[in-house]
# Entry
Amino acid sequence: MSAVCCECRVLSQEVLAQDIRLLAVEWTDTAHLPHAGQFYMLRSWGADEAPFLSRPISVHAYENGRLEFLYQVKGQGTEKLARLTAGDTLKLTGPAGNGFDVAACAGKKIAVVGGGIGTAPLYQLCRELAKAGNKADFFAGYRDLPYALEPFEAVCGKVAFSTDSGKAGHHGFVTDLFEAGDYDLILTCGPEIMMKNVAKKAAAAGVECLVSLEKKMACGIGACLGCTCHTKEGPKSVCKNGPVFNAKEVF
Ligand SMILES: Cc1cc2nc3c(=O)[nH]c(=O)nc-3n(C[C@H](O)[C@H](O)[C@H](O)COP(=O)(O)OP(=O)(O)OC[C@H]3O[C@@H](n4cnc5c(N)ncnc54)[C@H](O)[C@@H]3O)c2cc1C
Ligand code: FES
# Structure
């Protein structure tokens, strides 16, 4: 289904950690409901203001007209988003992209593996899996301390996390936390190096692995070729053909 563009009202914005924000907006277009792994292009600034391009942010959670984005403040675009408060409006284009196919996960034992802000789309994924009667195990890796992790407890089986700093959880990599062979399918989002290692572990155990790729995006709807990635079948756009791909196709 094609993405739509509209002005949406901000319901709330919370600071979850120094550079992590949870932004909730109203999304009442029931003909275009967002699904796990899809994203929106966000813009809270004028057409003639910098930055020139809108910013892609994943669906963190959606329910009953409340759409949530979990994001990290990195540069000009996300700094502007971080200034939004309840009652403000912003322009959303979406829901965009091919997300996770939750129906195809039926009957499979699933591990969901996230790294840092790459955990953002995985909450909606775990919610949709739980709703379909198939709670996944969730493994997350963070640099220092975890954030936005507690809500996963209600919608997952096992939940475990690691930190690079060792300040909390397992001191080490997220890939230390699970045995790929215990699962039928592994779904992952995070830094590319982490996803490559998750995919390697899955391949060694003969387990299918789907990855959600990140590329800088301009249009977000497959019109500009700005987000092309190389796949075994030739070049594809991450915004339209992805962001979710089979790991074997892209790594
Ligand atoms: C499909 C998709 C979904 C995404 N979902 C989320 C999400 O849910 N939460 C979230 O926090 N971020 C998400 N991102 C990344 C987010 O779009 C970028 O962090 C954001 O555009 C940075 O914009 P900025 O203007 O704040 O920073 P900029 O000034 O543009 O950049 C600041 C720094 O971030 C790096 N950066 C910029 N864009 C990207 C990118 N696409 N990938 C990796 N590094 C980037 C730049 O190289 C630079 O170092 C997603 C990206 C894609 C493609
Ligand atoms: S961002 Fe324009 S084609 Fe993907």
Q: What stands out?
A: The domain at 4-96 is CATH 2.40.30.10 (Elongation Factor Tu (Ef-tu); domain 3).
